[in-house]
Design goal:
Elements (H helix, E strand, L loop, with lengths): L7 H10 L4 H24 L7 H18 L9 H16 L6
Helix pairs in contact: 1-4, 2-3
Length: about 100
Amino acid sequence: MGKKFSSFAEFYPFYLAEHSNRTCRKLHFIGTWLVVAVLAFSFVRNEPIWLWLMPVVGYGFAWVGHFFFEHNKPATFKYPFYSLAGDWVMWKDIMMGKVKL
């Protein structure tokens, strides 16, 4: 079994270490932007049917990054909630310049 984290603050450095490959981080970043785009598209068109695409594009891009570039298993498999939060925090940190692409 994996390490137990008592808080997200404790988990996030682990999450960043699992994303040391720049291509993996770029794919996460693109996938997260696509999630935002799908959400906006669905809202603007008032067609919630498009929301099913959110996990497909979000996880699809991220998992390609992990399996083909990072060569590790996504943290989502062991820490689903912290991992989801980590993706959004890393996305914000990339946009703020705290994490490099």
